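Task 17 of the worksheet. Students: predict the tertiary structure of the chain below and write it out as structure tokens. Keep your answer in the requested format; marks are given for formatting as well as content.
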Amino acid sequence: MEGVDEEVEEGRTRCGGQGLDALGLERPAFVANSMGCQVVTELAVRRPARVGPIVLIGPTVDPQRRTARRQLLDGLRDAAREPGSLLARTARDDVRFGVAALLATARSALADRIEERLPLIKQPALVIRGEKDGFVGETWAKTAAALLPRGQLVVVPRQPHAVHYSRPDLVAGMVGALLAEEVEQVGSQLPWRFPHRYVPAVETHEPGPREDLLPFRRDPRGKQPVVLAPNE
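Model answer:
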């Protein structure tokens, strides 16, 4: 089935490039979760000139969990941690998608080796992991960020796999910070880094002075994981 999986990936990449053309986008940022990270990283490798900064939220598949049985068990465990509204949306989508398509997608995801692509990605990249992510282990999240030449890891306490759904405010702030830095460094032609001061994360209903721009603490060295405080 290897040839089939490669054909699927090529089709996804081709469609991605055509979508950028249709929208008139040159090097947009990409934010992806779970299997979407596999698609985005494939696009970044095959069409590097078309991809800007990338944010990988819970990138799959964790090499230590690359079996159908383990993914099923992880999915059941993670489901207990996700918001009910997300589970309802997912169930509706799965019904429309169909069993055959779901199985084909799962097979393709398991066959994919995202870890082989990450060292080839030159774009600024942020890996975000929810501390309670049932699919992506701590070791793999650190490894993924380390494999990315310009990668950084942020761990969000108490959050599940779909941290962008459970904490959209926090993730949106991280994306905004990454874009701001990209604009800054492109203009100054400085090596990529996280030059900002430490700014604590805050809840959206408790904004503080100068805390709306960067909702997390970045490590200026760029490779050490950034772990938000428990109350953030």
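Marker's comment: Residues 189-218 have pLDDT under 50 and may be disordered. The first strand starts at residue 30 and ends at 33.
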